[in-house]
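Module 6 notes. Inverse folding takes a fixed backbone as the condition and produces residue identities as the prediction. Think of it as a translation problem where the source language is geometry and the target language is the twenty amino acids. Below is one complete input and output pair. Work through it position by position during the lab.
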């Protein structure tokens, strides 16, 4: 049985090589000249001269503003809910709770695992 597989594989490889050679031989030759010569470079004709400004639907003007890299960021709003003003230092800090924070609202007792 192994001999049949080897024969089949060899026959498939031989037919594949013959197929590759036949397609190479029947391929259409380039018309540019003798083998090894490169085809001539074809450049498109120059565009026609258009008077006036060009209007392209792809390129459109984008409104320009201050450069975000070189300009200072805008200040945060004075009465924003995430910030509270520190009057002594004149700086805005995020409001963070300090120390232990009691839970808001009444706490529920733990669930009872005893069935009554």
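Target side of the pair, the amino acids:
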């Amino acid at each position: 049985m192994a001999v049949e597989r080897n024969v089949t594989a060899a026959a498939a490889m031989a037919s594949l090589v013959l197929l590759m050679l036949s397609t190479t031989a029947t391929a259409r030759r380039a018309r540019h000249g003798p083998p090894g010569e490169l085809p001539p470079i074809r450049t498109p004709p120059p565009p026609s001269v258009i008077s006036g400004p060009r209007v392209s639907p792809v390129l459109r003007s984008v409104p320009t503003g201050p450069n975000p890299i070189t300009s200072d960021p805008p200040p945060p709003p004075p009465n924003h809910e995430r910030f509270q003003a520190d009057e002594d230092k004149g700086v805005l800090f995020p409001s963070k709770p300090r120390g232990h924070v009691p839970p808001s609202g009444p706490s529920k007792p733990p669930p009872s695992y005893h069935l009554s």
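Reference fact for the lab report: The helical segments are 2-25.
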